[in-house]
Amino acid sequence: MAVVGRGVRDLIGPLLVVNFVVCLIVVGLAGWSIDKYINGEQNHPHLGGNPSTSFMLVFALLAGVLGFCSLLSGFIHLRAWRSDSLASAQSLSAISWAITAIAFGFVCKEIILGGHRGKRLRTLETFIVISLLSQFLYVVLLHGGVYHSRYGPGYRNFNEEDHGTAGVAIDHQHQKPDTPAEI
């Protein structure tokens, strides 16, 4: 079973790089599109859209930024590979995935409403779908670390010297028996 846990760790690194590139594209396209919307250029040939476009752009930008925060925490966890870094990486990845799922919902609504959608808007929609799937895989891999006995909380191998503490850190300093106890 040790191979399964090591395989998860080996998959998270490349997945973080893929998610970084996807988040970079999402933030870039969503930022450009919001700038055009603020300037009143909805009729730009690469933009277009319908009433749900502005909501989708806002949530896409939020999803991209939260994705970067999640990736930062994920890189720290990959480096440390401890239970405390796992907790922060899991929580941020779940929040980031949830916001991306909301942006995906607005993408679906935008497609259903139809109308002219320019190249960059369709590209942004595609990358939101890719981001949703890759972040979901990342969340699943992170949560898999919790349930695997060897790669769960603590990430350590314990031997008989631990006296059955099962992962509890204990200070093994010995007190001198000849020192009087203070009351």
Automatic annotation (TrEMBL):
Keywords: Membrane, Transmembrane, Transmembrane helix. It comes from the Eukaryota. The chain crosses the membrane at residues 12-34, 54-76, 88-107, 127-147. It holds the Pfam family AWPM-19. This is Membrane protein PM19L-like. It comes from Ziziphus jujuba var. spinosa.
